[in-house]
Specification:
CATH topology: TIM Barrel
Helix content: 25-40%
Number of strands: 8
Number of helices: 12
Order of helices and strands: HEHEHEHEHHEHEHHEEHHH
Structural class: alpha/beta
Strand content: 5-15%
CATH class: Alpha Beta
Distance between the termini: 30 Å
Length: about 325
């Protein structure tokens, strides 16, 4: 057992297990128009991995069975996938609620035309990454001009009803710019709300604060700055047993671009497949087995249980 397994069994003697699958997260590829310093998947414009249509068809077949409350589409930049519109349209035609994770700047790309009206028409829920409300912090983490493009995209989304109409939720994501835990989600959400409205008239629904995981580019950043050991020690020392019930791996499953199944996006980044007793490929998807699986863990899991906790929907406890 790793250190996280030892700690989790103090709370759950039987180990970390699924409590059922509400969300199917689908990573459609690694291609992205950005190459952010915190990206645990190391996505970039140079990556070529893309989910083939036959795997998307497998996911659509699962959607036909009405197995999930939400399909959460992520990447990379999902909008750059050649079958993006077809895939989302087919999911919605099957009555599936769909959420898109976007870096916002992609909406300003010339190759992505009329994407916002498409999303509005199909009532696709949006989660947009805006790691700070201050320009210098965003550009330092994500690249030159990213802040300006993100703000321009948010203004266009507001003009289309996102963040304003109930059927068009617009949530934002914050993650720290360094080797520290995120601040209180509620307090930071209030600050985001005030600053974005005052400066640009921008409205949004919720802010999700995420802990940076010691994976991918952020891991290399920690190692280059000699902070890996201290960061991991901080995460472990900040373990909060109150976060365990809400851990995202206990309520969702992740499908990678190649059809492999993972407990979460972070295990996906590590190539740490679901437990050996459960199916590892989308074509063998077995909800009954996956619903009661034991979750594969590693020391990176301390990132999700530190402080107020961290998940794809932000903090786990108030």
């Amino acid at each position: 057992m790793n250190e996280f397994d030892v700690r989790i069994r103090e709370v759950l003697p039987e180990g970390l297990r699924s409590q059922g699958i509400d969300t199917l997260q689908v990573n459609v590829g690694r291609r992205c128009n950005l190459a952010c310093t915190h990206c645990h998947l190391e996505c970039s414009p140079g990556r070529t991995e893309m989910m083939p249509w036959h795997i998307m068809e497998e996911i659509l077949e699962l959607a036909n069975q009405r197995l999930f409350k939400l399909v959460d589409v992520t990447g990379g930049s999902p909008e750059l996938h050649p079958d993006f519109r077809r895939f989302l349209s087919d999911l919605r035609d099957r009555g599936q609620t769909v959420q898109l994770r976007t870096n916002l700047t992609v909406f300003m790309e010339p190759s992505v035309k009329e994407i916002i009206p498409f999303l509005r028409e199909r009532e696709i829920q949006l989660v947009g990454s805006l790691p700070c409300y201050l320009e210098e912090n965003v550009n330092a983490q994500r690249g030159a001009d990213v802040y300006q493009k993100s703000i321009a995209a948010l203004c266009l989304l507001n003009q289309s009803g996102y963040g304003i109409e109930d059927k068009l939720p617009l949530n934002l994501v914050f993650n720290p710019g360094g080797a520290f835990l995120p601040p209180d989600q509620s307090d930071l959400e209030n600050t985001y709300r005030q600053e974005l409205k005052k400066r640009f008239g921008i409205l949004f629904d919720r802010l999700f604060v995420l802990t940076n995981m010691p994976l991918g580019r952020f891991k290399r950043y920690l190692e280059a700055n000699g902070e890996m050991e201290s960061y991991m020690s901080m995460l472990e020392a900040s373990f909060n047993p109150s976060t365990v019930d809400g851990l995202m791996c206990r309520h969702q499953i992740s499908i990678d671009w190649d059809g492999n199944i993972y407990d979460c996006d972070f295990n996906l980044a590590l190539g740490m497949a679901v437990n050996h007793s459960t199916p590892k490929k989308i074509e063998n998807f077995d909800r009954a087995l996956l619903n009661r699986r034991e979750i594969a863990t590693g020391i990176h899991c301390f990132g999700c249980t530190a402080g107020a906790g961290s998940s794809c929907a932000g903090s786990l406890i108030a």
